[in-house]
Design goal:
The chain is mostly helical. The protein has helices at about 1-30, 35-45, 50-60, 65-75, 80-90, 95-100, 110-120, 125-130, 135-150, 165-175, 180-200, 205-229.
Length: about 230
Amino acid sequence: MNKDLAQGLRDISPMMIAYAPIALLWGTIAAGQGLSPFQAWLMSAGVYSGAAQFVSMDLIETGMPVLLLVLTIATVSLRHVLMSASVSRHIASIPRARASLLLFWLTDEAWALIERRALERPISAAYFVGVAVPLWPTWFSFCALGAWLGNSLGDTSRFGLDFAFAAMFIAVLAGFWKGTRTALVLVASATVATLAKFYLPGAWYIILGGIAGMLTAIIGYREVDHVER
């Protein structure tokens, strides 16, 4: 257990470093929308979703009604249903009640690392805790710090922090590369997500891109099975 916990901490440590500037950026945006450091901390600890929190700040600025705001954030977060279903295959040995609790800390980055490790060995509860839980305090602490600093950081976009999440996830996805089939999944997901971003309102591009990638992977898997038979 200690070995798995330590391995999880080592695997997630680069992500913790990448989380800090993004959380600072969100905190400054939240302060610009009138949130206090405590409110920024509370929202970050409770919602704990960078995508949903950034989208919510944009929608609050437009004056969107609360109900529509909640529905939009729920749409953005639907990807967690897919991620949870994916991870559930690897944590069947963990008691259901404990696994349900652990899934609160399942982020995009933790999911990617868990899936990559599952290619080589089983996922224990200790590894799940080590790779997922540390991101949480990192996120809400730096979000609160960003709100406390407010606009004193100036225009944070000049540092390129808005691309940090994308760069971090590209690096993680590189570990899944398996040749042509991987390329097809990435191209399908990126194409559908980009088209949805330009032509559909809201954050549907996140869900549609994920579904397109998933369907492409399923079709590719069946085609390989057919050839082998």
